[in-house]
Design brief:
By secondary structure, the protein is of the alpha+beta class. It has a single domain (about 10-340), classed as BirA Bifunctional Protein, domain 2 (2-Layer Sandwich), CATH 3.30.930. The protein is built from 9 helices and 17 strands. The strands form 4 sheets. Strands 1, 5, 6, 9, 13, 14, 15, 16 and 17 form a 9-stranded mixed beta sheet that branches. A 3-stranded antiparallel beta sheet has the order 2-4-3, with no helix packed on it. The chain has a 3-stranded mixed beta sheet with strand order 7-8-12, with no helix packed on it. Helix 1 (about 10-35) crosses helix 3 (about 125-145), helix 1 packs across helix 9 and helix 5 (about 190-200) packs parallel to helix 6. The chain is globular, with a radius of gyration of 20 Å. About 40% of the residues are buried.
Length: about 350
């Protein structure tokens, strides 16, 4: 049997060329759109002191040697967020980046260990404005690709139709009849209450935290139903699931976080940004304690980032999976079909 041909085999590359041409057109159109809105395109550093402080995100680790010969641990970023918020603290008002980001333990039709995140921030702007940005960018990608139909695994969505606005609590009620907010006291999760309500829908183990149970229900019973026929904006996330977002003024149980879905695929994740450095430190520390308990490792806190959080203005931001957006707009079935060079050693 012949070995599987590599991705750079001319015949395999020829199959991917139409998708890559669509990628180029969408990239140009998106850049022009942000320029027309007064954004400055930035390029931030990939090597970071901390790659992010979320429990279940894993980053590649490397080592650099200083001019004095000192060996220093660095991480490949999981997002440009920390650097972008430092720029907000520095005085930038509207910034956007096509950022190369990295995630360990991820590979599949929708995941790559190295991918492109389109990330943007607006200072002095409510998060409903960046929700509108996200919807506009997705619609722009569809128009540029010449389609008004996104499809994935039998699900179809019209990216040009008015999106469905659905709170997380309403989604849990609609698809599982779970009263999610009844399992949060103030901003504190009640694990026992959610476990009792969710056992009908998912397998709950003794080791599961409130967040674990929430994620199981979300992934198994909520996400597959989102973005059907049109985009869904899932908003007002529970406070325990929004470590970088500020709480809503009228209900501390939920936070200014949203995600945009098409065909059951998460495309964008955005926040009204937290600017309380003391609270941010507490959230990161708790997340790293949980990471240590689960995975036996923790990432350092970026002290410069925490200082910038205290100095930055009120702001809102979005991270959009650019490769996923291109995949849906171009009609590809796997994310590796729309990147110029798949991961090193990948023969898919």
């Amino acid at each position: 049997m012949n070995a599987q041909r590599p991705w750079w085999d001319p015949s395999k590359h020829l199959d991917r060329q139409p998708f890559l041409q669509v990628r180029g057109r969408i990239t140009r159109a998106v850049r022009l759109w942000f320029e027309s809105k007064g954004f400055c395109e930035v390029e931030t550093g990939i090597l970071q002191v901390s790659p992010g402080n979320e429990t279940h995100l894993h980053a590649p680790r490397t080592e650099i040697v200083s001019a004095e010969g000192e060996r220093l641990t660095r991480y490949l970023r999981t997002s440009p967020e920390f650097a972008c918020k430092k720029l907000l603290a520095a005085g930038e008002d509207r910034i956007v980046e096509f950022a190369r980001v990295f995630r360990d333990r991820e590979r599949g039709d929708l995941h790559l260990p190295e991918f492109t995140m389109l990330e943007w921030y607006r200072a002095h702007t409510p998060y409903r404005t960046v929700i509108a940005d996200g919807i506009a960018v997705i619609a722009l990608a569809a128009r540029t690709a010449g389609t008004r139909t996104f499809s994935f695994r039998g699900r179809i969505a019209d990216p040009l139709a008015d999106p469905e606005m659905l709170s997380v609590a309403a989604a849990f009620d609609r698809f599982t009849a779970i009263d999610l907010l009844a399992t949060i006291d103030g901003s504190q999760p009640d694990r026992a209450a959610l476990a009792a309500a969710a056992r009908r829908w998912v397998r709950v183990t003794d080791d599961d935290t409130w967040s674990d149970i929430f994620s199981k229900v979300l992934v198994e019973h909520i996400e597959p139903n989102l973005g059907q026929g049109r985009l869904t904006v899932l908003h007002d996330y529970p406070a325990p699931e929004a470590a970088l977002a500020r709480a809503k003024a009228d209900d501390p149980r939920v936070a200014e976080r949203f995600e945009v879905y098409a065909c059951g695929v998460e495309l964008a994740n955005g926040f009204g940004e937290l600017t309380d450095a003391v609270e941010q430190r507490a959230r990161f520390t708790a997340a790293m304690d949980e990471k240590q308990r689960r995975y036996g490792e923790r990432y350092p806190l970026d002290e410069e980032f925490l200082a910038a959080v205290a100095a930055m203005p009120e702001a809102s931001g979005v991270a959009l999976g650019f490769d996923r957006l291109v995949m849906l707009a171009a009609g590809a079935t796997r994310i590796d079909q729309v990147v110029w060079t798949p991961p090193a050693g990948d023969r898919a």
